[in-house]
TrEMBL record:
Pathway: Protein modification; protein glycosylation. It is found in: Endoplasmic reticulum membrane. GO terms for cellular component: endoplasmic reticulum membrane. It is a single-pass membrane protein. Keywords: Endoplasmic reticulum, Glycosyltransferase, Membrane, Transferase, Transmembrane, Transmembrane helix. InterPro entries: ALG1-like (IPR026051), Glyco_trans_4-like_N (IPR028098). Residues 50-209 form the Glycosyltransferase subfamily 4-like N-terminal domain. This is Chitobiosyldiphosphodolichol beta-mannosyltransferase. Its main location: endoplasmic reticulum.
Length: 210
């Protein structure tokens, strides 16, 4: 009797674990050929990310593009049965309050909205992100990847903080904060691409990103 109770207890404890492992394997099997491409901007005006999506689709991946739908993407994207475009809601700055408050509200909204969209998608092997803009996208995509088992790939077009520096000045506190953020979370990516050899060398030497 005691042996039967112990066996039943062991089975009761191990069954949920076995089901969890089986569920995760099933989810990962579905994720292995799926990629989420994130553009925190207008998809139609992001030709490089459109080409990435097309290349991935031609390699047999199913691709979900998250981005703003302000202009029409390439016809090949719209006609592909492997590519799905999911629109993100774009929020404009409020007309009241200091600029720093307006920007802060926009960043918080984008972070929550992007995370929700990522978690509502089919599981993906990779989250492919265009940077800039990386605030708050890098941190959100990394966090979503941790939750869903996805690897983060960043395509570095430029540095977001340097673009902000053109508006606010390189020594502005928000620019320094953006540089710290971009450097910190950029190092958490699994894979990285960039547009020039000069940028690749700068990422390696000054940011520790290969």
């Amino acid at each position: 009797m005691a042996v039967s109770c112990v066996a039943f207890l062991a089975l009761s404890l191990s069954l949920p674990l076995l089901l969890l492992v089986a569920w995760k394997r099933w989810r990962w099997g579905r994720a292995a050929r799926h990629v989420i491409v994130v553009v925190l901007g207008d998809v139609g005006r992001s030709p490089r990310m459109q080409y990435h999506a097309l290349s991935l689709a031609k390699c047999g991946f199913s691709v979900t593009i998250l981005g703003f739908s302000n202009s029409k993407p390439r016809d090949e994207l719209l006609q592909s049965d492997r590519i799905r475009i999911v629109s993100l809601t774009e929020i404009r700055r409020f007309a009241v309050g200091p600029h720093i408050l307006q920007y802060g509200i926009k960043v918080v909204f984008q972070a929550v909205h992007l995370l929700w969209k990522l978690l509502c998608r089919e599981p993906a092997a990779y989250i492919f992100l265009q940077n800039p803009p990386g605030l708050p996208a890098i941190a959100v995509c990394w966090f979503a990847g941790c939750l869903c088992g996805s690897k983060l790939v960043i395509d570095w077009h430029n540095y977001g903080y340097s673009i902000m520096g053109l508006v606010h000045g390189p020594s502005h506190p928000i620019v320094l904060l953006a540089k710290w953020y971009e450097k910190l979370f950029g190092r958490l990516s699994h894979l990285n691409l960039c547009v020039t050899n000069a940028m690749r060398e700068d990422l390696v030497e000054n940011w520790g990103i290969k």
